[in-house]
Structure formats: C-alpha cells, structure tokens
Specification:
This protein is α/β, with parallel strands linked by helices. 44% of the residues lie in helices and 16% in strands.
Length: 298
C-alpha cells in the first residue's frame, strides 16, 4: 500500500464520511463502463384499448426518460396509455434522424408510445419565435392542438415556464397556447416538469423506487449520442436524492420533516378547466411508492 493510500484508509477509519463519499465517486466511475442501449424491453403492464391517456410533451429526445418518473408510475401502476410527444428532435439537423431512432428505442424500452409532430420535429420552438414569427408559431400550435384534440388526454406533462433552456420554455408556451384553442369543455390535469431550471413552487413530490429509476436511467442510455457527449444518465440518482431534500420543504412546507424517500421527482400540478389552469388542492402533496396515484387525479 502506498503512503497516500494508507493515509486515505486511516482517515476513512477515523471518519466514515470519507469512505461514504469515496463510494459515490467509485460508483460513478464504474457506471462509465456500462453499456449504452441494446437492452431488452423493461417489464410493462397490459394497457386496455380504452385506457385513459397521458401525454409527455418532450422538448428534446431524452426528456421523456429524465423527467418522466411520474409518467412511468402512471403507466405501471395506473395502466394509463402513456405516449411521448416528440416536440423537436434537437437543433442539429444532421443528428435529427439518428435522434429519432434513439428516441424510438428508448420509448420501446420504457413502454411509452411515440407521437411525432413532424418528420424532423418542430423547428424554432422558443419564446423569440412566439414573439416575432406569429405565422410559424401558430402553425406549431395547431399541430399540438390537433394532438390534444385527437388523443383527449387525462394528464399532460410538459416543462414549466422557467426551465432555462429556450426550447423547454418554448414547449411550455406551445402547449399552453394549444390548450387555449381547445373547446371550453376540454379538461385535463397539467403536470409541469423541471430539468434545466428548478421550480420555485412545486406542489407535488413523487417517490421513485429503485427499479423505476434504474429503468429511467437505462432508457436514457438509448440516447447514445447525447450521453456520449455528457453522461448525465449517471447523475440521475443524486439528482433524485436532492429532490427529496428540496421537496421536504418546498412541497412539505418550510421546516418540514423529510419523508423517508430515497429518490423523488418534483412537479407542479394544476387542472385545465373552463379555458384556464387552476389549483385543485391547497398546499403540497408527497406521494410515496405505496400511495394510490388515482387519488391525485380526481
């Protein structure tokens, strides 16, 4: 053993947190050698033809895996027909066909259906286009409205309005503008997600079990080109752990006691009714792995 190794071992013996952190670092390095994609489909339930529908409006391919924890629980526990709506296929035109193939493989693994908006996805989905190119924006809104009209979803998931990335923010307003065009009697539950920018006022924390999170990570690895560039799939567990820290107070209330969750995702839930988004419960909800999700969407 080298002197430096001896010193590290001695510190770990005296202070167990050195070993605690070292194990996290070792796991991260170990994960870098794991395979990307190529796995057989994850286990999934049989979905009835008349099952209620959930739509995940993904700004980019991979968002469905990274921010889709609640969508996965709705599929597996509530037997909802969950479909990913590929709003864009990224801005790199040369990569768009490949990103679509990666997305198809990821959805096939996780069990989500796939709805495309255009052969190469929608273009210029951002706040600047909304403000300056009314014709193009209106055509994009019409496509999203058509999907909502045809699918009649019970639940839709899409980014919140401050999710930093311009396409994420654009997707938020694209969906909201499409909702405003729907008939006055159209109703659904709105679930706003976060990825790049944290929500300041989430009202829902959903616990994720190790198996669900592992499948989210595995599905993300099918986006090979993206995770080769940035292996963010390996950082999902600590992110979902940090959500428990944040959610204990942001959702549970300042000074709240953290629930006994290891992993969780944060969302903002409202209901679209009579042409507007409205709260349908006060305060925040913390949904454990054993809780019945049907109680939330009533």
């Amino acid at each position: 053993m080298l002197p430096s190794d001896y010193a590290i071992s001695l510190r770990a013996a005296m202070n167990p947190y050195h070993g605690f952190v070292s194990q996290f670092a070792a796991l991260l390095e170990q994960g870098r050698g794991y395979s990307l994609g190529g796995f057989g489909p994850a286990a999934r339930p049989t979905i009835a033809n008349d099952a209620p529908k959930a739509l995940f409006f993904a700004p980019h391919p991979d968002d469905e895996c990274i921010s889709g924890g609640l969508a996965l629980r709705l599929l597996r526990e509530q037997r909802m027909a969950v479909s990913n709506v590929a709003v864009t296929l990224g801005s790199n035109k040369a990569r768009q066909p490949e990103r679509l193939r990666e997305l198809q493989a990821a959805c096939n693994y996780i069990g989500f259906g796939l709805i495309t908006t255009a052969p190469n996805g929608l273009e210029k989905v951002n706040p600047s286009t909304r403000a300056k190119d009314v014709a193009h924006w209106g055509a994009c809104v019409t496509i999203i409205q058509s999907i909502l009209q045809n699918r009649q979803p019970t639940v839709i998931l899409f980014p919140h309005e401050h999710d930093w990335n311009s396409t994420h923010i654009g997707t938020h307003f694209l969906v909201m503008d499409a909702l405003k065009r729907m008939p006055p009697n159209f109703e659904c539950f709105l679930v706003e997600t976060e990825f790049w920018g944290q929500m300041t006022e989430p009202n829902l924390m959903v616990e994720l079990g190790p198996e669900d999170l592992a499948d989210m990570i595995t599905a993300t690895t099918f986006h090979v080109g993206e995770v080769n560039r940035n292996p963010y799939h390996l950082l999902l567990p600590p992110w979902m752990m940090d959500n428990v820290r944040r959610g204990a107070e942001l959702v549970g209330g300042q000074g709240g006691v953290a629930p006994d969750f290891k992993f969780a995702a944060l969302y903002r839930v409202r209901k679209w009714r009579a042409g507007r988004a409205e709260k349908f419960f006060e305060g925040g909800k913390q949904i454990s792995r054993s809780a019945d999700l049907s109680e939330l969407f009533k």
